[in-house]
Amino acid sequence: MSGFKQLLIVKFAKYRRFVFDSKRFNSSSPDRSISYARRLLYGGAYILSFASIGMMLVGIYMNFDYFVNERQQRFLIQRDLLTREVDRYQLLLRQLVESYETINHKNERNIIPSERYRQVLLQKNNVINTRREISVTPFSVLSTLTQTEDAASLSMLLRLTQEMSRFSLIGIRQSNSAMSGFVYSVDKRFLAVTPPLPESVLQDIKQGGVQLEISRQIARVEVEMSKYSENRLLNKCCVIWVPLSRDPVTGELILQIAKPVFNNGKRMAVIVFTMPVIQFERLFQQSKHLSDFLVVAQDHYTLFGLDATKEREANWAKILRALPDVLENASDQVQLAYRKGTFLITQKIPGPDWVAVYVFDWPMVAQYLRKELWISVAVLSALLCILWGYVILLDRIVLASMQKKARAVYESEAFNRTVFAMAPVGLAVLDPLRQVILMQNEIAYGLTGQQLGKGESFYRPLLDEVFFSAEANRDNKQIVLRKDVTARSSEGGIVELVADLSWVRYQNQDVVLCSLTDITERKRAEALLEETSLLADEANKAKSVFLAMMSHEIRTPLHGALGNIELLEGEVLSTAQRARLITIRRAFDALLVLTNNILDLSKVEAQELKLELAHVKVGELMERCAQTFSPLIAKKGLNFYCLIDAPLFAVWEVDGHRISQIIMNLLGNAVKFTQQGSITFYATVEDLGPSDSWIKLSVADSGIGIPLDRQAAVFDLYTQANKDIAERFGGSGLGLSLCRRLLELAGGSIYLDSEEGEGSIFTVQFPSKKIADLAEVIHSNSTLFITEVLIVCKSPTWKSTLLNQVTSQLPGVDIHEVINLADISDLDPLGASNKILLLAHNESCLPSDCLSGQLQQFKQIIVVSFDGPLHPETREGIIYVTSLSRAALGYALMSCAYKQDMSLPVFQQEARVLNSRQEVRILIAEDDETNLLLLEHQLNALGYIHVDSVSNGQQAFNCCLQQNYDLVITDLYMPIMGGQALLKAMRQSGITTPLLVHTANAYDDWRAEGEDFAAILLKPLSIMQLGQTLGRILHLSTPEMLDGVRGRLETFRDVELEKVFLVSWEFDRLSLQDAANAKDLQRFERCLHKIKGGLLVLDEKPALKVCEALQQQLRLGEFTQINTLLSEFLSIMSNIVSHYK
Length: 1141
Known about the structure:
The chain is an alpha+beta fold. The protein has 33 helices and 37 strands.
């Protein structure tokens, strides 16, 4: 009922919103207004109708509930009658057994002539009928106790038969039917039955055997008796109800009640009473037969208490037998069940395990409630007829007339509003008293940006200047005021307007009609004419100044940087340093080239640019361009393939500067517009004759792509695919335009193949002439130490390029190629010492699917990747080299094949640290062990060896009182005394040592503003930042970080910091949870700040994100979300701790 009630509430709420929501209707529409009124009318009628129906249903339900209760009372009365009869029979049977067991039979042994009966049994073949000397009621006795030693047992059983004959139930006769019974011994040698069996039956028993007849008579009783334990049978209250069965003689349905008899704790006999079911029905049905009450036996199939000849009661029997679950679920409590249109009241009868059932159905309910139903339906029908008659009359007489009048008014109003809205000028109706807008069209809103109900800022000055009155207007003297004004449009721009104002009547009040005409374009055209001549004169001057500035102000510092790089190239550098220096130089070269694009474009337009042809190794030039972009491509997580045909490494006649400029533009665009996937640079040569060749290069990416309708426009000057691309990725739109013009100058071309969302391919081709072929490789050691090279590469084009290079450089070596490492195991392992494995993939490390067992069969392994080192490096016996240098890969191959040294001659650079830095004394105040340990190692790496550390501001202050320090590095949040309190205490004590703030929270910047801090550094702090800041504060030069120092520091980050963090985390976690439980927000924030410092050092971004969210909630005072975020934070930290362990 609760679910149905909830459903009705939801439906009513929807109906109420549908009927009474006035926002659904536009009051300006007469049809909609009348429709709204009509919905209110009919909605109210519906509500009253439903309320009346509901009241009727409630009344019917109450009568139905009364009917059910009345039937339950009838059921209880009949159930009590049945239970009383069952209890009476059980009680009488127990009394019989108890009276026999309490009699002292030893004194009555001579009363029973057991010896004579034993002799008679022998004479009459074990079957006799008793006389009145033994039993009041005659019995047929069947016994095999005919031996002398059986005298005692026979005497005892005859006495029991005698007691049974005295039992009052045996003599009861109703309707010519008597209750019968029998007693038998447990050993199945004695059976006494009453009433006596017919003589014909006795003769049949003599012929068939007494023992067999005894077993047949007691079989059903013994089956039921076996279901009980001896202890339970010993219970005086234990009476066995045998399931209903058919009498073998009469065929009628009978019920049997059994009770065991014990002698000295041993069961010796069983007394059984038998009664026809029809006789039992008369006892509890009494004089009146109730067709709705019946009893179901233990088997849930046999029913009694009903008249099977009656159709209705036979139908009840079918229904009950078809619903076994109702009978199985019956219990000692009264239960009401409903199945298939029938109501059933059930309860178990203790003892025989019967189920009392009362049955009624809907026709019975309807018969009982017919009077109330007819009255309710009649009254409800009358009320509904009156209600809906009144509603229909009101709708047709009143609302229909109102609708006609409203439609006429609406059409007139709609016509006026249409004219108002379609006017080519801005129109507004103003209330001069309140100085607000009553109505305006879209043009007026667009010109002024004033909303309805407002207008003070723009219209008030105009209304103040209206010097005429409404009376003059009523005399048909149409006075109009015209004035030029300036306004700010709805889009935010300034517009020039002409305003015309006049008095009119609107909705029974005097208002002002204002007309606005936009004259902005006219004013702008006048101003533009004045400025055009000035701009034309200044254009040439600006261009000259710009070109001069670009040539001097930008190129001068770039050249200065390049000059210093050239000086560094002459100094002693390690291999890695020299490689970095080369990359920096090339990047500066590319920057200078890109800066010259604007100047070059100007020269092209002025037809002053000319190509400067030179002899260039085009392949190496292309590799240098690719190497310049390699770090940026690797940083973005993209794959990069540089595939250059071997002939291009020969000497060609080209303008190398312009070719490099084109390639850098194309690669720069590919990197800029590609967020995932790969970039491929592919260069080939097409020979058309001895002196006629075309160089063709392509740059393909998997970036955003370009729509088909915008592909031609990307080569226009200052043009990109669309505005969104310019906003997202930046750029001036000069690169591709300059590339096309340079190629046209060289006699080449550029074309584009792109699909939006899939990527782009820019292809460039230009004519060139080969000057010299590729030089032949000469080996200092002609002995070849390998016989086979195995190339593993998943990219077919890259594999082809590698195959050509290995073939050209190692012509006497067998070369095999596979796609996956799994295919290596199928190769012949013999001769493994003469094999080289060449692994080509996109990372400078071994592939994840590489197994150590697969690599042991090779003499040497070379890993080629675009982010590999520019010079071959050996790490753990494996050579790593870049794929962006044909020469570097050649060095690696030759070192393996001819046992040559693949390293370039470099010199080791020693670390030099200034002596003054070694004399500086620094004090660190930091409560987070992870940050403290990292800071100490960073200072040591920078050459600061005199470093002390404490865990709070109070200790730092005491140290400053006892020792002179050149610098104090402190955190803002620390126990006992924080950074700001430390600064205040030092200054009050006259200590002027500089303080440097080292904090994990960017939000702390404002806290330190205005304080006497030397600098503010955010965690995590790079060693370069720390070195530069210390150099500035202490007036020392910034030390250089050597690779060895950096490497040790990175190793320290990975290992030592994790150990220190694990030690401090458990204490920090408990402190954080205690603060949260105690709702101590200040202590919670301090603990959180300390933990955040360690997370910043370890670069745990997910945990940092939740940590910052917690800090944000604390600042905003939103305490409800803190517990949820804290649980998420602790879960993430648990995963981090498990990972570190």
